[in-house]
Write a structure and sequence with these properties.
Blueprint (H helix, E strand, L loop, with lengths): L2 E3 L3 H20 L5 H23 L6 H4 L3 H12 L11 H24 L8 H31 L4 H7 L1 E3 L1
Antiparallel strand pairs: 1-2
The structure holds protoporphyrin IX containing FE (2 copies).
């Protein structure tokens, strides 16, 4: 099988850093401790790096390659409901909407988590609620994101999760 390099090492490293930090921060559930803060800030930092890389990175890492403009997204969604969505080498537009949402939620957790440590919001119930609610929505969407990766893998007879590890896809 002929393969082609799609995801550069930085894209892959950022992805799996996010996976480890987000899932462990959710699972540990010890909101106040230093480990939680570190993992949360590493995740937020990884997102910021990914955004910068989206402008200067390799071909399929760039926003220009996958940003879900309506002219990309609408035809894709139409095809998806007819179950005729095309296979894409880079990110598909629906996946791109999800990725941008996940990244925004991680950043929101970094900001609300930081605010929880300031004098103004220390122990503030509303801010705690926003932080926890954001974390819950993020985890829910992560489940959907991972499920979609598996479903699209089956539909296009390829292993997208493995591609996020090796960087390679079938041509
Ligand atoms: C990936 C990012 C993050 C995730 C998934 C996450 C998730 C959570 C969750 C689920 C809780 C509730 C814990 C419980 O049940 O009591 C929590 C609490 C908390 N988090 Fe985060 N968090 C993240 C980032 C951060 C950051 C960057 C900070 C601060 C630097 C932070 C500070 C806190 C604090 C202070 C609490 C305790 C709130 C309370 O007293 O109930 N978090 N976080
Ligand atoms: C835990 C939190 C997660 C976050 C925040 C997250 C976020 C992201 C982001 C931002 C991307 C875009 C990659 C890039 O261009 O930089 C992505 C892609 C991807 N993620 Fe995740 N992800 C998470 C978990 C997972 C899990 C658990 C799986 C595995 C089942 C997974 C599988 C994938 C795959 C296969 C792609 C590439 C999709 C494609 O081929 O277009 N992700 N993810």
């Amino acid at each position: 099988m002929k393969t082609i390099k799609i995801w550069d090492p930085l894209v892959r490293a950022i992805h799996w850093t996010l996976v480890v930090c987000v899932i462990s921060n959710f699972a540990l559930k010890e909101g106040g401790d230093a480990l939680h803060h570190w993992l949360g800030y590493i995740a937020a930092g990884a997102v910021i790096l990914r955004v910068l890389w989206g402008f200067v990175g390799t071909r399929h890492a760039r926003f220009a390659d996958f940003f879900p403009t309506s002219s990309r997204l609408v035809p894709y969604l139409n095809a998806l409901v007819r179950r005729q969505e095309p296979r894409m080498l880079g990110h598909n537009p629906a996946a791109a909407v999800m990725m941008l949402t996940l990244m925004a939620l991680v950043l929101a957790l970094g900001v609300t988590g930081f605010l929880l440590g300031t004098d103004t919001f220390w122990g503030d119930d509303l801010m705690k609620g926003i932080h926890e609610w954001t974390a819950n929505v993020l985890i829910g969407l992560v489940g959907l994101h991972a499920l979609a990766a598996v479903v699209e893998s089956i539909r296009h007879r390829e292993n997208l999760v493995w591609s996020m590890i090796t960087g390679k896809k079938r041509e």
